[in-house]
Structures are given as C-alpha cells and as structure tokens.
C-alpha cells in the first residue's frame, strides 16, 4: 500500500501529525494520503498517562476544541504538593511552587479519551486508521532511506511456524515519509536510533516507570479538579520519584507513582512502592470506601533537552515521546507530543508539495529547525537542569537547587548539567544492597500484581512467539540472578518474569509470562545487560485500557 505519510502509533503525537497534514492539504486544496497504524485493539487502548494537560498545543491544532467537544472537561481548580515522611507530611502551598509545577489553566483528562477523540477527528478529515496492526519492521530503500514499515504476521505459533488456516502475512506500507510516533522507548525507534546514529549529538535517554490506578470513590472523598503531587516517602532520598493524584469527573481519581529508572537497589519494586505509598495517612483517606477499577503501567522519558536525538533522517522523522519531549518538572509530555507532531507534519507537507516530479523526498530538515525555534524547545531548555540535579544531590539537594534555579532564574542559567549515566548501568550488586521488606497487600487498598494485571484487560494470543526476546538465554540466571537476585521479577509491573525452580529449590530458570505484558517497556530499559529486547507481539494484543 502506498501513502504520502505513514504514521506508526496512534497516540497524541501520531494523531496530531496526521490531522495537521490533512488540515494543511485542505487549506491548499492538495491531496495527501495519510495512514496511522496502532498496535492497540482500538485507539486509546494502549494509552496510559496522568494526566493533567496543558492545552496550548491542542488549541493550536483546534482553536475551537471546546465547541468541538474535546474531552478536556475538568479544569484544575485546586492543587497541593506534599513532601511525605513516614508518619506525616510537609505541605508546600501551590503559590510557592516553581512556575512549571503550577497547574492553573490546565485540564485533568484521560489521555486515552483525548486520543479517542483525536482519532475521530482524524478519520473525519480522511486519515486511514488501522488499529490492531503493529508495525513490526522498518523497510528501507536500496539507498538506505526509510521506505515504510511492515506489519507483523498474524497466526504464527509459539514455535515460529505458521498456524494452519490462521496465518495472515503482514502487509508492507510504503510512504514518502514515515513518522515514528511510538511513544517512550519505541521498538522500531530503537532500531532507527542505531541505524542512523540519531543519538550521536545527545546524551543517552533516561527514564522513569509510571504505575497507575483508576479509582471510583464516594462523593465525600472527591473534589473535582483537585491535583495532588508528592515526593519523598516511601522512596529513600537518593531514589528519584513521586506520585500524582488527580480528581477527574464522575467521582474518579487517577492515582499513580513514578520511579526514576536509575534507581540503584536491585530489591526495589516500583509496583510495591506504589502500593505502599497509598497507605500513607494523608493519601489513604481518598480511597476509603472506594473501588479500584483500572490498572496499568508505562515508561516515560526523563532525559529532557539533553537527550533529544536527531529528529529527521532520510524518509522519516521521530515525533512525540519516541524522540522524548517530556517536561519533567511539569510532569507533562502530551502537549509537546502534539506540537512536535504538528511541526513534523508541516515540514512534510511543504516537502511533499514543493518536490519536483520524480524527485526523492528530502530529509525533513525544516522539522528540527522548527523545533529549535519553538516553545517546546524553550520549555525544555528552562527545565533541563531539574532531573540531573536530583541525580546529583538527591531529594533534598535537588529540591533546593530546583527551587532556587526555577524561582529566581526560571531555568535561564548559563550551565547545563549532564545526566552522565544509562539507567541499566545503575543497579548495585545484591551483595551491596539491602533487601526491602514490602508489606502484604490487603486486597482493599493495596493489591498484588496478578489481580492488578487482570483489570488492565491485557490479552495476548497465547500461541505466538514470545515478544520479550532474550539475546542470550543464559543471562537471566547466570548474570541477573547471580549478581542482582533477578531484578526483572521486581521491575516488571505485570509479573511477567518469574524465577521458577525444581521442588528441591535447585535448577533456577526464568519463566516469561508474556501474555501478562502491559507494554510498559521497562524491561527493555532496565535489564542490566540490555539482554531483553521488547518486540511487537501480534497486533491487537496488550492492555485494553479504558479511560487511562
Ligand atoms: C505515568 C505517566 C504519567 C504522565 N502524566 C502526564 C501528565 O499528567 N500530563 C502530560 O501532558 N503528560 C503526561 N505523561 C506523558 C504523556 O503521556 C506522553 O508525553 C504522551 O503520551 C506521549 O505521546 P506520544 O504520542 O508520543 O506517545 P504514546 O502516548 O505513548 O502513544 C504511542 C502510541 O503508539 C502505539 N505504538 C507504539 N509502537 C507501535 C508500533 N510499533 N506499531 C503500532 N503502534 C505502536 C502505542 O500503542 C500508543 O498508542 C505521563 C506519562 C506517564 C507514563
Ligand atoms: S514484560 Fe517488560 S514491557 Fe511487559 S509489562 Fe513487564 S516490564 Fe513492561
């Protein structure tokens, strides 16, 4: 199938790029064919975010989004920030927070629902959307430029052989430009970074894992429009992270916990830290008498400006969190995802309509230039020292530094801190680390992984090749178990990795429960030797998030 632009990923960046291309074509009376591939069973099924949304970018895309009925229904009306200690907390008035952390003028949304709405707008504008199709392979022209992508085969058995009567080969989609909008740690994006050396001019990306639940709570516990953030307990002072708690419409609360993936203790479990956090007396009361209705997890970029790779390469571009435009102190990336999708679309439109007959598509240099002159760049520039200052000086030092830098200088200081590490290299050996004794879940406020995965509605065809591939089968036991007590058992928020043994405790083996995977990509990031390579399973597999 031939298109002008193929977009891989139906998140905020991919859908906005597709819409912007169609808007530009309509303004100019031109014909541009655009298609979007989405690995989730529907648009929004794999979207997990906080989310408080800065409406700046969506307002540029649709100045009349309010009349059009975009689901940004809950303006932020109140906010709190608390530094948690084990028995109590210290509140910081919103007025004293650095400007990027203030949320006046923003909206509490379900990003999944925003994407569903963007998907409807895209379809109405003539974009072809194919949910349930994962782009599994990048296709190249003979000159090395990107030719498009191929979707994965359906109906391949666990043994790698086609299943009788069920096999449907993947399809090739060719395009003049292919946009990779896979979000944080995209599986094809990772290959492109290597093929085109896109990280040559930047630092390696750093990440966090965000784990989230959606609760329905009694009306008396709920204050529509309230935003609560915390730092501190249950994490120690040298581990980066914190929580968000957003009061949505309909007596729902979105609650989540983020842990920086440069954590050092191999015994740490981000999932268990999140469960523990909910038991804090200043937090637990929100959930009293309530019911947890959804669960999920997703990695997020934390590297910011220093880690933005080269954005354009022959035949394609990286947009949104595939490149990594998350603003860490704001805890927001959706506005930057939308805006970068729009900028890439504008560059592609000009290149497509300006190209002579038979001329090869040019590298979209106009897109990185537009980014460098945009408010996205300015915002990331001002935020650039926040995350590395926490890595350098821990919670107290990082908070003090950030307070001074952001309040007095708005981030406009003449120095830029480096991150100086890769997340997978940060674990201490088990012999140097202290095991953490996590409390047992009570099934009311705190839960185990399996009952959590159950309400992520995750579903994978079981008879298919395992999509958590290992470069070397011996590493999990001989290296990870030996040196780090198999940290994949703890960093995976879905219980995919289990060390199983014979009845007498001998013969440890790694069992991969791939059907539980919620596509958060943490294992691909944190595995100490980068032995785990996440590849796309059959399209349509994975979580089926409602309004996450
Ligand atoms: C816990 C958490 C809290 C957050 N809180 C906020 C917040 O409060 N406010 C805010 O603005 N931002 C927040 N963010 C960040 C925000 O979610 C991201 O910046 C935003 O979702 C990025 O959009 P994207 O389109 O680049 O990628 P995504 O939203 O990740 O979308 C990518 C899409 O591509 C699909 N895809 C991936 N690979 C393939 C493939 N090979 N083939 C087909 N489809 C594919 C995925 O299924 C997905 O639907 C948060 C993120 C997390 C994880
Ligand atoms: S297997 Fe990997 S990608 Fe899947 S849920 Fe676990 S850590 Fe996330």
Structural summary, described in words:
The strands form 5 sheets. Strands 1, 2, 8, 9, 10, 11, 17 and 18 form an 8-stranded mixed beta sheet that branches. A 7-stranded mixed beta sheet has the order 6-5-13-14-15-12-16. 52% of the residues are buried. The chain has helices at residues 12-28, 56-61, 65-68, 111-124, 187-195, 270-277, 281-284, 334-354, 366-372, 375-383, 386-409, 449-454, 475-484, 488-491, 522-526; strands at residues 2-8, 34-38, 52-53, 74-75, 78-84, 89-92, 107-108, 128-131, 135-140, 146-151, 172-180, 207-216, 226-232, 241-247, 252-260, 291-301, 312-313, 316-318, 468-470, 497-500, 509-512, 532-534. It is globular and about 70 Å long. It contains 15 helices and 22 strands. Helix 8 (334-354) runs antiparallel to helix 9 (366-372). By secondary structure, the chain is an alpha+beta fold. Helices cover 27% and strands 21% of the residues. The mean pLDDT is 96. The chain has 4 domains: 2-65 and 112-201 and 309-383, FAD/NAD(P)-binding domain, CATH 3.50.50; 74-107 and 205-300, D-Amino Acid Oxidase, Chain A, domain 2; 385-417, no CATH class; 441-534, Alpha-Beta Plaits (2-Layer Sandwich), CATH 3.30.70. The protein binds flavin-adenine dinucleotide (FAD) and iron/sulfur cluster (SF4). Flavin-adenine dinucleotide binds at residues 8-14, 37-40, 46-53, 111, 134-135, 181-184, 186-188, 210, 212, 256, 258, 298, 300, 320-322, 326, 331-335, 337, 536. Flavin-adenine dinucleotide binds next to helix 1, strand 2, strand 3, helix 5 and strand 12.
């Amino acid at each position: 199938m031939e298109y002008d632009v193929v977009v891989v990923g139906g998140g905020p960046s991919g859908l906005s790029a597709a819409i912007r291309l169609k808007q530009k074509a309509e303004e100019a009376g031109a014909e541009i064919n655009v298609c979007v591939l989405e690995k989730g069973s529907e648009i929004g099924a794999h979207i997990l975010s906080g989310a408080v949304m800065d409406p700046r970018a969506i307002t540029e895309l649709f100045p009349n989004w309010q009349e059009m009925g975009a689901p940004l229904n809950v303006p932020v009306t109140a906010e709190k920030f608390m530094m948690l200690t084990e028995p109590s907390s210290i509140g910081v008035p919103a007025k004293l927070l650095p400007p990027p952390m203030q949320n006046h003028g923003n909206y509490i949304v379900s990003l999944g629902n925003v994407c569903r709405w963007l998907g409807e707008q895209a379809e109405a504008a003539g974009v072809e959307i194919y949910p349930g199709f994962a782009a599994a392979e990048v296709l190249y022209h003979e000159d090395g430029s990107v030719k498009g992508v191929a979707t994965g085969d359906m109906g391949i058995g666990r043994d790698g052989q086609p299943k009788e009567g069920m096999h449907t080969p993947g399809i090739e989609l060719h395009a003049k430009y292919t946009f990779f909008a896979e979000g944080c740690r995209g599986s094809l994006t990772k290959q492109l970074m290597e093929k085109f050396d896109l990280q040559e001019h930047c630092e390696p990306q750093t990440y966090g894992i965000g784990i989230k639940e959606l609760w329905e709570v009694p009306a008396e516990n709920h204050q529509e429009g309230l935003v609560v953030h915390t730092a501190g307990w249950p994490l120690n002072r040298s581990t980066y992270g914190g929580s968000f708690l957003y009061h949505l419409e309909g007596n729902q609360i979105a609650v989540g916990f983020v842990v920086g993936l440069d954590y050092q203790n191999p015994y740490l479990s981000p999932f268990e830290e999140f469960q523990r956090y909910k038991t804090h007396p200043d937090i637990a009361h929100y959930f009293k008498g309530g019911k947890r209705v959804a669960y999920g997890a997703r990695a997020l970029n934390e590297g910011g400006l220093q880690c933005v790779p080269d954005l354009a390469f022959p035949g394609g571009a990286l947009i949104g969190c595939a490149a990594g435009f998350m603003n860490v102190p704001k805890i927001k990336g959706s506005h930057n995802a939308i805006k970068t999708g729009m900028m890439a679309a504008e560059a592609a439109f000009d290149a497509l309509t300006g190209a002579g007959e038979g001329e090869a598509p040019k590298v979209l240099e106009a897109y990185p230039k537009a980014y460098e002159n945009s408010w996205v760049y300015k915002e990331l520039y001002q935020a650039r020292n926040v995350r590395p200052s926490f890595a350098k000086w821990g919670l107290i030092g990082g908070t003090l530094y950030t307070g001074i830098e952001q309040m007095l200088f708005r981030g406009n200081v003449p120095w830029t801190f480096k991150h100086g590490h890769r997340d997978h290299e940060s674990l201490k050996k088990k012999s140097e680390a202290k095991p953490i004794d996590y409390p047992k879940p009570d099934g009311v406020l705190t839960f185990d992984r399996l009952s959590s995965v159950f309400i992520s509605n995750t579903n994978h065809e079981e008879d298919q090749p395992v999509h958590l591939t290992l470069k070397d089968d011996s590493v999990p036991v001989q290296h990870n178990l030996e040196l780090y007590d198999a940290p994949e058992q703890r960093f995976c928020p879905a219980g995919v990795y289990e060390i199983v043994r014979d009845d007498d405790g001998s013969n440890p083996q790694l069992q991969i429960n791939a059907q539980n995977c919620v596509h958060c990509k943490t294992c691909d990031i944190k595995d100490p030797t980068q032995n785990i390579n996440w590849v796309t399973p059959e399209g349509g597999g994975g979580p089926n998030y409602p309004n996450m």
